[in-house]
Amino acid sequence: MKKLNLxxxxxxxxxxxxxxxLKGKVASETKxxxxxxxxxxNMEGKIIDGTTTKEDGSFEVNLKNGFYKIEISLLxxxxxxxxxxxxxxxxxxTIVLKENETKLVEVVVQSKKKTIEQKTDRLVYNLENNVxxxxxxxLSAINTAPGVVVKNDVITILGKGTSRVxxxxxxxxxxxxxxxxxxxxxxAADIKNIEVISNPPAKYEADGTGGLINIIMKKGVRDxxxxxxxxxxxxxxxxxxxxRDNFFYSKNKFRFSASVNGRTGYKNSIENLDMYFPDGLSKxxxxxxVKNESFSGKLAxxxxxxxxxxxxxxxxxxxxxxxxxxxxxxxxxxIENELQNVTLNKSFTDKGSKNQTYNAHLITKLDSxxxxxxxxxxxxxxxxxxxxxxxxxxxxxxxxxxxxNQAGRNISNQDIDNWSFKADxxxxxxxxxxxxxxxxxxxxxxxxxxxxNTITGIPELDLSQSNRFKYTENxxxxxxxxxxxxxxxxxLQMGLRLENTQTNGFSETMNQENVxxxxxxxxxxxxxxxxxxxxxxxxxxxxxxxxxRFDLLNPFRVYIxxxxxxxxxxxxxxxxSDNFELAHSYKEVLRTSIFVNAITNGYGVVFTSNPETNTxxxxxENYYKGLNYGLGETYxxxxxxxWQSENTLYFLGSETKFIKDINATPxxxxxxxxxxxxxxxxxxxxxxxxxxxxxxxxxSGLYEVGYVSxxxxxxxxxxxxxxxxxxxxxxxxxxxxxxKDFTSVVNGVKQVYSQNESNRFVRLSVIYNFGNKKINVKxxxxxxxxxxxRAN
Length: 792
Description:
Helix content is about 5%, strand content about 65%. By secondary structure, the chain is mainly β. β13 (about 165) and β14 form a beta hairpin. It holds the Pfam family OMP_b-brl_3. Its main location: membrane. It comes from Flavobacterium ginsengisoli.
């Protein structure tokens, strides 16, 4: 390993950087304090080093000269923070921590972290104070983050668009329903905080118009172990049982963690679709019972080869089996609104997916000046199946059987493999901090669609509706990023990412090939100005790309019901966006942001129709360019010792122009989004949570969307010195958080769609913790994967 470090030092440029030692002692008013956590934070808010105090309370950290903030924390004591300018060896002397007051409400308020923290390039949300996430999962936790909305299997930063999700800096390459299922397998109790990165730095992939959601997981401290078990039950129309167990172990040079998550039960989905054809209304009502069954596990281990070099391995596995049976009623009316006929569509779908992820990494600290090199190798495999049997019978208005409208079996499968290799270098200089790196990614996807006509009772293969599709995508990227604190008031960060992409889509059935090869630059820029202790201003810009999911490129159709089908588009191209944001923070209590997001070559779902057959067709097209803009306000208030309130208010607007003739007219309007989360301390071990959110009706481009709101109440009781927790949640009490009045007009046919997926439920959770429950605040960013999010 010494030879490896020597080789790395010879290959990389060396600079003589001034460094100094920072030391001190930590004590209470009566004794020295051991195991106090010392964190060194740079001026961008990132933890760059840290240690814990020895038996006599002493600590020592070697740092390059510069501006820092030292943070000291220990359970039972008020946290200590101080900004320092390190120019020579510095002894801070004895730092005395004050014990938390014995008065009940003061203990709770003084010991907890700020719920929202604004950093240079991200917003950090500490969810531990939100009772509604207790016993919940990562998806529900994301939905409570400020400015983030989860609707209809899509995670969105308001005004930005669809967001990608990372765990500990590692991209999860899933999207839609599959991503949501994966996030539901992660316990919210094991999340330290959530980072909302609306304009990601150059280090991260440029894919995704809506920025990044980074989930930081809790870690166990050295020479300790911890286990947490959660059992919960959700009751909607049906019931869902969840069991989670998470284990952490750390001893000397070895760190290990494992988790197992299982869920079983059912939920109910109600859908309504009205299509206004020239010859009359077609009205569809669907009632679906969906199996909510999943099992997942994770293993992670790290080993310190030396004081400077660590190797590690991670494995994640996730399996879902969301089978569902649907009863669909389609009523056809004439122009006088008289019922003409009825189609009853009964179907059962055997649906399943599984994915497994492997990561190996090496991190080596090259010297005491914090130069650090890391390597990541990732492999990801995802496969899914979809097997639907359906029969649709026609009846007259008196419900007398006429004939079989359609009967079939629709089978589709997809298999995706992805390899990626990544290297990152953190290279601080005397004048500024520099980071750079490179990544290569190789993806192969094979999907097939088979349709059997079963109207005669004997399955007959329909080659015109069957297809096998192969898709490959390779990506090479390099980036460089620099940041500098110019003085006490100004900080700058700039980055540039270069991505080269080659794609090939081939339909074996149609003997059709589609090839793309493009090279793109993605710049980022951040500037921060601290006028005084109360006022901070920031400006940022970033360019992004939004690549289509793999399944959207498959040209063949999958039937939704006898009256509706979905088909992919092999000619779908990526879209691009330019993102600007100006923000102001007042006393870290009131935050204001003004943002603009310009999209070119935008693609999306088009709900078109065929008036001759009264059939709905779901397609994807590059059909628009748009401008999204908005004003956001976030207000954090301690209204009383026992009342903490977090509030957001957004005003959103858009302008849309269609670049393709889809026989529709764009329409836009203002949208208002309001959220308030309130935590009430009722006793030493008792909390009450009352949350409300409201999103007004709005128009954007092709669509008009109805209002959405939710009123939630949560309650948590700590027992046995917090080793046991009991939590209760009543979610969406008034049943108003579902998609309603989703309207579009294409080809002169108006379509109005609504969907309610059992958002109203009550949950009872029991959490038991044992072992050493102290959590380490330090975390590392793993290597990431580029293609996993677009698997679906």
